Amino acid sequence: MIKTTAMILNELKAYANPKTKLSRMVQSGDYFPIVKGLYETNRNVDGYLLAGSIYGPSYLSFEFALSYYGMIPESVYTYTSATFDKKRKKTFETSFGTFTYQDVPGKAYPWGIRLVFEGEYSFQIATKEKAVCDKLYNMSSVHSMNEMRQLLTDNLRIDEEELEKLDLQSLQILQQKYHSTNVNFLVKVLEKERI
After folding, report:
1. Which residue blocks in 84-180 are alpha helix, DSSP H?
2. What are 94's strand-pairing partners?
3. What's the half-sphere exposure (Cβ side, CA atoms, 13 Å) at 50?
4. Are 12 and 22 in contact (CB under 8 A)?
5. Helices (H), strands (E): how many in the chain?
6. Helix or strand or coil: residue 47?
7. Could you tell me which of 158, 159, 163, 162 has the C-alpha nearest to residue 192?
């Protein structure tokens, strides 16, 4: 379970020196530091369950989400998340893994996010369509549908069958939020293939 320093110190207020008690609890393995001001009670918790608490508002996306959905063959060992209006990419190296955060357009941010519950944890993750759009938005622009097709299958290595499963209507709605050349070409490629 994720806890803030303030929560823990409040729980330890009966002790003469709650901060010293917290330090001892960290040393004895009752609490595991994540980042400054944030602790976890379970050393073996999966990092993706912590990503939204480390920096936010944010949701899991990009390579992590593409891997989570089985859209790309690679395993991803960095927990990649989307933010907005932060202006620069942020990285946190922790004992639970590496967490990266990068912006997507503010207008696109709230669309296509799922809330997933897993035991006592919950996390937000982009839908398949949103994860592809987020990834394409942060890549250099292509100049044709052929280049987009190559980018999707050769560079990103997204499975052809997974591309066919993407919901075109959701992508068309997202297209209006991104105002991105890459997202526009993605929609054109899929529209052409589904005629």
Report:
1. 128-137, 145-150, 160-165, 168-178
2. 97
3. 30
4. yes
5. 9, 9
6. helix
7. 163
- The token duo for 33 is 């530091």
Given a contact cutoff of 8 angstroms between Cβ atoms, the answer to whether 171 and 190 are in contact is yes
Say which residues have a Cβ less than 8 Å from residue 164's Cβ, sequence separation at least 6: 193
The DSSP call for residue 105 is -
Q: Which structure tokens are listed for 163?
A: 């591309």
Given pLDDT bands bounded at 50, 70 and 90, which one contains residue 11? very high
pLDDT at 195 over 70: no
How much is the pTM?
0.92
Q: Alpha carbon of 39 to those of 30, 43, 77, 141: distances in Å?
A: 10, 10, 21, 40
Give every strand in the sheet of 78-83, ordered side by side. 90-94, 97-103, 78-83, 59-60, 121-126, 113-118
Q: State how far the Cα of 43 lies from the Cα of 24, in Å rounded to an integer.
A: 16
pLDDT band at 74 (very low <50, low <70, confident <90, very high): confident
Q: Which residues contact 190 (CB under 8 A, 6 or more apart)?
A: 163, 166, 168, 171
